């Protein structure tokens, strides 16, 4: 593995592919500094375009990336035209930076990718960056004598605990896939290292008090165990696992939080989001920012306690439906249709299993948060969707 990575780095340096190096750096910085990560990402895109124009470098390396970029561009044009149609050109320009600009990454991210072997550098850079962020905040918290919790990450690195949880769950998914599906088997030393990292990740998620993460962890473990155990043993495992989680929840104050309370306010938001969707189900509602639309509905329906909360839908599916309507939703669904079509043609069981774990994480988080409306979320989604897209496209790459 390390020899392969070293070989790939040497090739990229020899090719002087500066845009890809900037892309690698941006992923390392993603959990550590949103400003530096954004700067590196913009630099990567700019350099890629320059390389394509002046050095005749290929803009999109594979057929799958071309389709991905086309879908992203189609969605981006759709939301701009929809906004202009529903409001005005001037209003669309005024809202562009905060409401629409981040969706440009859906068609810009595919430009930055190389072939499958080289793209692994992006994966390892992201993993190293995430681990660095956790260690850094832990050390700062220790030195300052402050609690190591979600507030610490927001204070020192300006990263919301939801996105940090997604990043850590992503690493956990890779570890579980290696433990259960690694082709040639792992040595006991590697198994011990992976298990230790997995335990540390779960411990950090406990500190973050991420209720969603606890559910996803159970889902991932059950998914991977399901591939190895028969039904009888699987049933016993699930019962034991839930009993174990119940005991932890009962005696550990760190995760002894109210799921009902967390769900209650979301149900209120989801109700108003769906009501807004019903007002314009075909093209959606872009007459105002999402939070303004929800606050207006809260006011009209007498939910005055929500007016100062400045909350979005806290549900990516409803957010997309209410803002972009059925037409916009159908365009985004094509992302899923396309990658499933590629999966149907491949025999890469190891990568398929890894992608399913990735999908479980992102699809569940979509259910409780507006993941792709923030920089951390849209970068994570657009990068790793295209990462797996290239992996599935050609088994020999």
TrEMBL record:
Pfam families: Wzy_C
Keyword Transmembrane: yes
Organism superkingdom: Bacteria
GO MF term set: ligase activity
Residues covered by the O-antigen ligase-related domain: 197-333
Compartments it resides in: Membrane
Bilayer topology annotation: Multi-pass membrane protein
InterPro entries in UniProt: O-antigen_ligase-rel_domated, WaaL-like
Transmembrane parts of this sequence: 67-87, 121-143, 163-182, 189-206, 212-227, 234-251, 320-343, 350-368
Alphabetical keyword list: Ligase, Membrane, Transmembrane, Transmembrane helix
Chief subcellular location: membrane
Ion transport among keywords: no
Protein name: O-antigen ligase family protein
Species this protein is from: Gilvirhabdus luticola
Organismal lineage: Bacteria, Pseudomonadati, Bacteroidota, Flavobacteriia, Flavobacteriales
């Amino acid at each position: 593995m390390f020899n392969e990575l070293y070989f790939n780095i040497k090739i990229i340096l020899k090719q002087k592919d500066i845009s890809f190096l900037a892309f690698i750096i941006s992923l390392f910085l993603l959990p550590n500094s949103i400003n530096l990560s954004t700067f590196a990402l913009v630099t990567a895109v700019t350099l890629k375009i320059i390389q394509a124009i002046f050095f005749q470098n290929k803009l999109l390396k594979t057929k799958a990336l071309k389709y991905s970029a086309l879908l992203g561009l189609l969605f981006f044009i759709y939301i701009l035209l929809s906004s202009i149609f529903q409001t005005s050109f001037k209003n669309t320009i005024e809202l562009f930076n905060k409401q629409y600009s981040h969706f440009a990454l859906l068609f810009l991210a595919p430009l930055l990718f190389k072939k499958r072997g080289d793209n692994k550098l992006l994966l390892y850079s992201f993993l190293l960056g995430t681990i660095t962020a956790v260690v850094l905040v832990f050390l700062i918290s220790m030195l300052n004598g402050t609690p190591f919790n979600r507030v610490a990450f927001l204070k020192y690195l300006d990263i919301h605990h939801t996105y940090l949880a997604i990043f850590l769950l992503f690493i956990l998914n890779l570890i579980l896939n290696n433990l259960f599906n690694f082709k040639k088997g792992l040595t006991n030393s590697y198994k011990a290292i992976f298990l230790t990292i997995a335990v540390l990740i779960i411990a950090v998620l406990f500190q973050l008090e991420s209720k969603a993460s606890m559910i996803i962890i159970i889902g991932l473990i059950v998914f991977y165990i399901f591939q190895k155990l028969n039904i009888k043993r699987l049933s016993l495992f699930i019962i034991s696992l839930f009993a174990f989680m119940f005991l932890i929840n009962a005696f550990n104050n760190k995760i002894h939080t109210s799921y009902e309370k967390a769900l209650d306010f979301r149900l209120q938001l989801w109700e108003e989001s769906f009501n807004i969707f019903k007002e314009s189900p075909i093209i959606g509602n872009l007459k105002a920012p999402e939070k303004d639309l929800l606050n207006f509905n809260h006011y009209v329906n007498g939910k005055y306690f929500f007016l100062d909360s400045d909350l979005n839908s806290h549900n990516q599916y409803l957010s997309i439906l209410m803002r972009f309507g059925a037409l916009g939703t159908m365009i985004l669904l094509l992302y899923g249709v396309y990658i499933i079509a590629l999966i149907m043609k491949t025999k890469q069981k190891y990568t398929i299993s890894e992608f399913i774990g990735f999908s479980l994480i992102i699809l569940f988080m979509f259910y409780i948060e507006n993941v792709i409306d923030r920089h951390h979320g849209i970068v994570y989604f657009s990068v790793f969707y295209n990462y797996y897209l290239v992996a599935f496209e050609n088994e020999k790459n």
